[in-house]
Amino acid sequence: MTTITMASFMLTGSDNLSLTKRMKSPNGPGFMSSSSSVIHGRNINIPTLGLKFPKKTPKSIVRCSSSSRPASQLRFIQHKKEAFWFYRFLSIVYDHVINPGHWTEDMRDDALEPADLYSRKLKVVDVGGGTGFTTLGIVKHVDPENVTILDQSPHQLEKAKEKDELKKCTIIEGDAEDLPFSTDYCDRYISAGSIEYWPDPQRGIREAYRVLRFGGRACLIGPVYPTFWLSRFFADVWMLFPKEEEYIDWFKKAGFHDVQLKRIGPKWYRGVRRHGLIMGCSVSGVKRHHGDSPLQLGPKEEDVEKPVNPFSFALRFVLGTIASIYYVLVPIYMWIKDQIIPKGMPI
């Protein structure tokens, strides 16, 4: 495994914090280079990442990872074939096991707020929509007949088809890195809990830009990279946990403007990213020009038609599934700590 190094960043903030700061980024991969990138927080501490804060005594110091861990690093369940079989079984209990700890209705509604679903008539695509849990939040604001759910897992989509609120939605199988929609197709692109399985996240975000109309907005919701060593280990074994600056960098490179990142978390979350969150941030951006993304990419990283070694595949699948159990236990552990440790103190 890649050697992980650690460095400290100074955090500053207070309860009910709401910050908007222009970012100045250090030179190097993984950091955003535009002053228009914004991080919005609520009840959290914001890492400096090159920001200039007023001269105040910081209230806390938290260790954050600064490793050069590549997003392309191989995880056991990240590519499409592993994800397909992983959800073949997980789809049975997804809404009852994963969501209660990591992806609640309150979190979903909070994470969708940057999507600006202001009209029932907006045309929306929900990429990696799975069982339709996120789509249920979308159809609160948009007419179901204007919403398309796309996922590569027929087993997940079968669960979505069973939900009465989604009966009028268009439900199709498809690839997030090669969307079956025309350029300038929709008003809103939304994807929640999908990027962690993309072999090439930059390609998927480029596709989000392409299919949006001029003035359209993308809202991508996903996990955040942990800082606790054991959580980092299982994150790297299991699937992709991007860093916050990576999300922003991918959006900017795809051509998005007004890129914003909003931290989200379950009720036990107190602004500490130590263990990582399967749904930890909501990133949004606006398409300011018609047509395709200015970013040009080469061939796709993963050829799903290429034969695989059955033994190797089975071993990867088993190890990745074992690693995923750790993140089922994390919310239970954190919920217990939340009940014991006095409010106002980080956990």
UniProtKB/TrEMBL annotation:
Residues 210-223 are annotated as: SAM motif III. This is Methyltransferase. Residues 169-182 are annotated as: SAM motif II. One of its GO terms (molecular function) is 2-methyl-6-phytyl-1,4-benzoquinone methyltransferase activity. Residues 124-133 are annotated as: SAM motif I. PROSITE patterns: SAM_MPBQ_MSBQ_MT. Belongs to the class I-like SAM-binding methyltransferase superfamily. MPBQ/MBSQ MT family. Residues 75-284 form the MPBQ/MBSQ family SAM-binding methyltransferase profile domain. Keywords: Membrane, Methyltransferase, S-adenosyl-L-methionine, Transferase, Transmembrane, Transmembrane helix. The chain crosses the membrane at residues 313-336. The keyword Isomerase does not apply. One of its GO terms (biological process) is methylation.
